[in-house]
Every structure is written in structure tokens, then in C-alpha cells.
Amino acid sequence: MIEIPALDIFSDDPANLTSTIQLLLLLTVLALAPSILILMTCFTRIVIVLSFVRTGLATQQMPPNQVLVGIALFITFFIMTPVFSQVNEEALQPLFAGELTQEEAFDAAALPLKEFMAKHTREKDLALFMGYAGLERPESLDDIPLTSLVPAFAISELKTAFQIGFMIFVPFLVIDMVVASILMSMGMMMLPPVMIALPFKILLFVMVDGWHLVIRSLLLSF
């Protein structure tokens, strides 16, 4: 029989208390993982840009949502690996070793994420939430609360993603306009231009190695 360790929050045994803390932290992280992934990492920008690519190609559900989300997840883990490693080395491992309290570990874990988000947050967006909360201009990164930095980072990422999406849409829009003009000049107004433009857009995207260019641009943007 496999014995399941008892969950005793009020235990005086350091080993039992450490196991309890680890379990509680694990459950908390798992519960908040979707929100942390979406709002505190580069996942939002990547998945929106990939969605813009699919919409610009007008390929309906190709690639499927599962493929786009999977690619976005792995690229996110690739970009965020240095940040996650720093969180593990400076917060989680010292906490499990009993060198830090939970409050100190939380502050240590928040600092690398703050540095990443602050680097990609527009000052205007941060000032919006700081001003609404009645906070003064921060002197350092420690003075910026996560309650203001996270939403500011989120809307900054949305703006950046839409700017990249606009640049992706332009060549596809040109192809649509050219095909529509040719069909109208030939009197084929009943033939959907999207149907004729689709193979040309796919051909152009493949010839310029579009996926490589998009992913390379996303990596360089961080």
C-alpha cells in the first residue's frame, strides 16, 4: 500500500510543514497558471499574431486552434525560460530549503516577472493604472505593484500584437485587391475574389517562408 502524506497545516514538524507548503504552493500555481500564462508572459502577443496570420490567409480553421495554441505555448516557454529559471533559483529553491519565508519568496519570484513585464510595458499604459489607483510616480521597480503592472503589460501587448498584425495583413490585402480588380475588369462579379486569391496568398506565404519570418519577428520583438 502507498501511504499518502498527511496534510497538517498546524504541524510543528519542519519536514511535514515543508511538504504541506509545497503542496499548497503547487495547488495555488496550478489554479492561477492560466492567468499567469496569459497576462504575465509573452503568450498573448504570440497567439494573437499567429491568429492574424491565419485570418490574413483566409484559410478558415487551418492551422487549427490547437496547433496555434501549442506553437504559442512552446515559443512562450522558450522565451520565458531565463525568467522561470531565475524564479526557481531565487525563490522556489530557497523557499523549499527553508532559507526564505513565503512572503520573501513571493517578492523574490515577482521581481524577475516584474522586470520582464516592465521592459515591454509602455509608460503611458502604466501611468494610466498608476494614476487611477492614486499612486505616485515610482522611483524603482519595487514601487510598482503587480495590480497596476499586469493590466498595463496586457494592454501594451495587445497594442504591439495588433501593430504586428497590421503589417502582416497589408500584403494579403494587396493580393485581395488585385484579384478583385481583375475579376471585375473581366466581368466576373459573381465569382468570390476570396476563392481565387486564396491559392495565391498561400503560394506567396510559402515562397517567402512566412512562418519562419513571423516566428523570427516575434522572437526578435522580445
TrEMBL record:
It holds the Pfam family FliP. One of its GO terms (cellular component) is bacterial-type flagellum basal body. This is Flagellar biosynthetic protein FliP. It is a multi-pass membrane protein. It is found in: Cell membrane; Bacterial flagellum basal body. It comes from Evansella caseinilytica. One of its GO terms (biological process) is protein secretion. The keyword Transmembrane applies. The keyword Transport applies. The gene is fliP.
